[in-house]
Amino acid sequence: MEGLSFQPIFSADGLVLEYAVAGPRHTWRRHIPGRPAHLAREAFAFFRSFHEHIPFTLDCGGDLSSIGWSAAELCASSGLVLDGTELLANPNPAQEERFGVDAAYPARLVTFHAPPVSHLHARSHLFSRYAEFKVGLRIRLTPTVARGGPSAHGALQVTGLHIKAPPDFSEFSSLRSRFIELVQQAEVAKLPLLVSDVNHAHDLHWMRVFPDLRILGSVLSPPMGASSLKALLALGGDNWRTFRVGARYP
Question: How many Å apart are CA 138 and CA 155, to the nearest integer?
C-alpha cells in the first residue's frame, strides 16, 4: 500500500469501530489527477484481503471544495462508481491483477466526510454555528434506481457528524459548554458524533462521560502503516472489533 496510513476509530470505552484511511501527507494539500481513485483502490484491496469486511472512512484527497455535494459530483471528482451495492474505484482492466476485478468494496462500509451542506441535512445550519469544532457531515453512497435501473452514482446518505477537538478544550468551561450543546444537537438529530484530533489525555478522559462518542486521535493510537495494521488485525483474527485499548494479546 503506497504510503497509506490507518488510524483506529474507537468507542468511548476503547472498542475499535472502524478505521480512518489517509494518503501520504505530501498529497493532502494539492490535487493530483487520478489520486483519489488510486487511494480508494489501495484501501479496497487492503481491506478485501481480510475475511470479515471492515468499515472505514476514506480521505479521498484532492480539491472537493467546489463540488455541490451530490452523489454524481462526489463520484466524478473521486473516480468512483456505485455498482448496485458495491463501490468501485475507477475500474481499470490493466489493474485487475494487482487490485482484483473492479477493486470493489461494499458501499455501506465506506464513509466520506463533507462540510455541513444545507441540502444534505436539515439541521446543517445549526451545526455550522459551532465553528470552533469545525463540524462536518459523515456520508455514504447508497443505491438508488433511476429510469428503471440502478444509478451509477446512487444517493448521499448522512450517517453522522465529524468534528475536530481544539487542543486542551476540556480545560475551558466555555468550550466544554459548547461541546455539550453540540453533543445534544447530534443526539436530537440521531447522528453519531466522531471527534478527531483527540491528542491529549485530559480531553479524552473528560469526553468519556459521553458513551456514544466515536474518538480518533493520537492519544489512543497514532496513524500506522499497512504492515503494522496487518499485524494488529492478525492478532484478533476475524474478531477485529474485540481489540480494546489496554488489553493484552499473545
Answer: 13
